[in-house]
Amino acid sequence: MNDLASPTTYDFATAEPRWQRAWQEAGCFEVPDVPDNAKPKYYVLEMFPYPSGKIHMGHVRNYTLGDVVARYKRARGYQVLHPMGWDAFGLPAENAARERGVHPGAWTRSNIAAMRAELQRMGLSIDWRREFATCDPEYYGQQQHLFLDFLEAGLVERRESWVNWDPVDGTVLANEQVIDGRGWRSGAPVEKKLLSQWFFKITQFAPDLLAALDGLTRWPDRVRTMQAKWIGRSEGARVRFPLTVPNAGMTDIEVYTTRPDTLFGMSFLAIAPEHPLAAAVAAADPAAAAFVAECRRLGTSEAAIETAEKRGFDTGLRVRHPFLPEQSFPIWVANFVLMEYGTGAIFGCPGHDQRDFEFATKYHLPIITVVAPLESAPREPGDSAYDGPGRICNSGFLDGLSIDEAKSAAIRALEASGFGTGVVNWRLRDWGVSRQRYWGCPIPIIHCGVCGTVPAAKASLPIRLPDDVSFDRPGNPLDHHPTWKNVACPRCGAPALRETDTFDTFVDSSWYYARFCSPAAAEPVAREAVDAWLPVDQYIGGIEHAILHLLYSRFFARAMRKTGYLNADEPFAGLFTQGMVTHESYRGADGRWLYPEEVRRDADGTTQHRDTGEAVTVGRVEAMSKSKRNTIDPGAIINGYGADTARWFILSDNPPDRDMEWTEAGVAGASRFVQRLRRLAEASVACDTTPPGEFAPAAMELRRATHRTIAHVTEALESFAFNVAVARIYSLVGAVTDADRVPDVPGMAYARREAIEILARLIAPSMPHLAEEIFARISPGAGLLAEASWPEADSALVAAQSVTIAVQVMGKLRGTIEAVPGERADRVVSAAAAEPHVARLLEGKRILKRIHVPDKIVNFVVAP
RNA sequence: GCCCGCCUGGCGGAAUGGUAGACGCAGCGGACUUAAAAUCCGCAGCCCUUUGGGCAUGGGGGUUCAACUCCCCCGGCGGGCACCA
Question: I want to staple A344 with a disulfide (CB 3.0 to 4.6 A). Which of A24, A171, A272, A419 is the partner?
Answer without folding.
Answer: A272
